[in-house]
Amino acid sequence: MKVTQQEMAEARLPLFYRDYCAHLLIPLNRCRIKKLWMPWECEEERHAHEKCEYEERSRIMTKLKEAEKAKQQQQ
Q1: Alpha carbon of 8 to those of 26, 29, 31, 52, 71: distances in Å?
Q2: What is the pLDDT of residues 26-53, one digit of tens each?
Q3: Structural domains in the chain (count)
Q4: Distances (CA, A) of 59 to 5, 7, 53
Q5: Where in the cell is it found (predicted)?
Q6: Which domain holds residue 52?
Q7: Rounded to two decimals, what is the model's pTM?
Protein backbone atom coordinates (compact mmCIF):
# COMPACT_ATOMS: atom_id res chain seq x y z
CA MET A 1 0.00 0.00 0.00
CA LYS A 2 1.34 3.38 -0.97
CA VAL A 3 -1.26 5.42 0.94
CA THR A 4 -2.39 5.06 4.51
CA GLN A 5 -5.87 4.29 5.77
CA GLN A 6 -6.00 7.84 7.09
CA GLU A 7 -5.26 9.32 3.65
CA MET A 8 -7.91 7.12 2.05
CA ALA A 9 -10.44 8.15 4.68
CA GLU A 10 -9.62 11.84 4.15
CA ALA A 11 -10.11 11.34 0.40
CA ARG A 12 -13.45 9.71 1.23
CA LEU A 13 -12.74 6.60 -0.83
CA PRO A 14 -15.41 3.91 -0.48
CA LEU A 15 -14.13 0.79 1.28
CA PHE A 16 -14.35 -1.23 -1.94
CA TYR A 17 -11.78 1.05 -3.61
CA ARG A 18 -9.27 1.06 -0.76
CA ASP A 19 -6.92 -1.33 -2.45
CA TYR A 20 -3.41 -1.44 -3.90
CA CYS A 21 -4.31 1.16 -6.56
CA ALA A 22 -5.79 3.76 -4.21
CA HIS A 23 -2.69 5.93 -4.63
CA LEU A 24 -3.82 6.50 -8.23
CA LEU A 25 -7.52 6.84 -7.51
CA ILE A 26 -7.11 9.77 -5.12
CA PRO A 27 -5.58 12.14 -7.71
CA LEU A 28 -8.02 10.83 -10.34
CA ASN A 29 -11.01 11.73 -8.18
CA ARG A 30 -9.53 15.15 -7.44
CA CYS A 31 -9.09 15.76 -11.16
CA ARG A 32 -12.63 14.58 -11.86
CA ILE A 33 -14.05 16.99 -9.31
CA LYS A 34 -11.91 19.85 -10.62
CA LYS A 35 -12.95 19.17 -14.23
CA LEU A 36 -16.64 18.61 -13.38
CA TRP A 37 -16.55 14.90 -14.35
CA MET A 38 -16.15 15.60 -18.05
CA PRO A 39 -15.46 12.21 -19.68
CA TRP A 40 -12.68 13.49 -21.93
CA GLU A 41 -10.78 15.06 -19.04
CA CYS A 42 -8.34 13.26 -16.71
CA GLU A 43 -7.60 10.57 -19.29
CA GLU A 44 -4.01 10.01 -18.18
CA GLU A 45 -5.00 9.56 -14.54
CA ARG A 46 -7.90 7.28 -15.46
CA HIS A 47 -5.72 5.15 -17.72
CA ALA A 48 -3.05 4.79 -15.02
CA HIS A 49 -5.66 3.71 -12.46
CA GLU A 50 -7.34 1.24 -14.83
CA LYS A 51 -3.97 -0.26 -15.77
CA CYS A 52 -3.06 -0.68 -12.12
CA GLU A 53 -6.41 -2.37 -11.38
CA TYR A 54 -5.98 -4.71 -14.35
CA GLU A 55 -2.45 -5.70 -13.35
CA GLU A 56 -3.47 -6.24 -9.72
CA ARG A 57 -6.41 -8.44 -10.66
CA SER A 58 -4.23 -10.39 -13.11
CA ARG A 59 -1.68 -10.96 -10.36
CA ILE A 60 -4.36 -12.16 -7.96
CA MET A 61 -5.88 -14.50 -10.56
CA THR A 62 -2.46 -15.96 -11.32
CA LYS A 63 -1.91 -16.68 -7.63
CA LEU A 64 -5.34 -18.28 -7.33
CA LYS A 65 -4.71 -20.49 -10.37
CA GLU A 66 -1.33 -21.56 -8.99
CA ALA A 67 -2.88 -22.36 -5.62
CA GLU A 68 -5.64 -24.41 -7.29
CA LYS A 69 -3.08 -26.28 -9.38
CA ALA A 70 -0.98 -27.04 -6.28
CA LYS A 71 -4.09 -28.22 -4.46
CA GLN A 72 -4.99 -30.57 -7.31
CA GLN A 73 -1.47 -31.99 -7.40
CA GLN A 74 -1.63 -32.80 -3.68
CA GLN A 75 -4.75 -34.91 -4.17
Answers
A1: 8, 12, 16, 17, 36
A2: 999 999 999 999 999 999 999 999 999 9
A3: 1
A4: 23, 25, 10
A5: Mitochondrion inner membrane; Mitochondrion intermembrane space
A6: 5-74
A7: 0.87
